[in-house]
Amino acid sequence: MEEQQNITESKPKRPQLLTILCILTFIGSGLGVFGFLMVAVNYENTMEIMRNVYANMPEAAFLLNAPRDFFLISFVLSASSVLGAIMMWNLRKIGFHLYTSSQLIYLVVPLIYFGGETNPIMNIILTALFVYLYARNLQFMR
């Protein structure tokens, strides 16, 4: 009985901020995993639907020219972000590096495919905020 209590006490506790960040990442990147995979698998049908939906939205027109590999790359980056968050959930520092590198690459991919057609300011701000907040929790990870 005493041994079980010592094991419980010696296990590091995940900070609340890290828990919240991981949950938000599970939701956001998890939806990305699902969405990007669905588009990549059903590319032709999805693009037809997008042509109808975005016909009157010029700010989203660049998506109509997105090749299938854009969605596949985005799927892989979203999945690696989720994997990084799972590792951080388990207090593993390597998860921070996986998450951060995935997110930084994810900022560059649309610029490669669409050039100046996208406005990445909001993505840059959110990525910087999440990376900063995750970095503040590195001291709790091993």
Structural key phrases:
single chain, 142 residues, mainly alpha, elongated
Q: Summed up, what is this model?
A:
With 142 residues, this protein is an all-alpha fold. 73% of the residues lie in helices and 0% in strands.
Structure overview:
The chain is mainly alpha-helical and 142 residues long. It has one domain. The chain is 73% helix and 0% strand. The chain is built from six helices and no strands. It has helices at 2-10, 16-41, 43-53, 68-89, 94-114, 121-135. Helix 4 (68-89) runs antiparallel to helix 5 (94-114) and helix 5 runs antiparallel to helix 6. The longest helix has 26 residues, at 16-41. The mean pLDDT is 92.
Q: Tally of extended strands?
A: 0
In total, how many domains does the architecture comprise?
1
Query: Mean of the pLDDT scores?
Result: 92
Which blocks of ≥5 consecutive residues have pLDDT under 50? none
> Radius of gyration, Cα only, in angstroms?
19 Å
Helix and strand content put the structural class at: mainly alpha
